[in-house]
Amino acid sequence: MVQRLILILFPLLLAVGAYFYVIPTVKRKHYDFTLQSADGPVSLSDFRGKKAVAIYFGYTYCPDICPTTFSNLTGAMKLLPPEAADAMQVIFVSVDTDRDTPQSLKEYVEYFYPTYLGVTGSKTQIDEVVSRYDGTEYTIIKGGSKAMGYTVGHTSYVYFFDKQGNFSSRLNHSIDPRETLTHMEKALGIAH
Questions:
Q1: Per-domain residue ranges of the chain
Q2: What is the pLDDT of residue 141?
Q3: pTM of the model
Q4: Span 34-188 CATH architecture
């Protein structure tokens, strides 16, 4: 009887273990990346166990959506209690590998909030990272003003991860800091 019970329960326990350990680990690896900031390499996994993370894809020459998104993120950060804001890391991944440098990204993101990070890499690296984030796309659009030479069409999603590095939520373009705050609080584990 005991052996039969063990034979029945053992596979069930393995399945439960896989669900709570293996599947989240695979999902975390799916989203992980290492790109360059002005201060050195940055990986999503660097923040595991330390901070919740919000990731946004765009470019510094963006005339409207990126600055609006960053103003919105900053508005939400300012609504958080100081200790919660310290536990939230925003990372800007540039999809404009020709113009955005690690230093220009640092200057751009720190204009909005001093702890934001800007990262970039080669076009191949950026394409690899973009492919991991469902719904994120970008296209180089030739033409436009002579000063800029081209623009970049891109989606506008913010991806949130909890402190364990697990995907928490995806926010479609929003201009309401309170909506963004809700996603931040979920990633931070702040109950209402």
A1: 1-31, 34-188
A2: 87
A3: 0.83
A4: 3-Layer(aba) Sandwich (3.40)
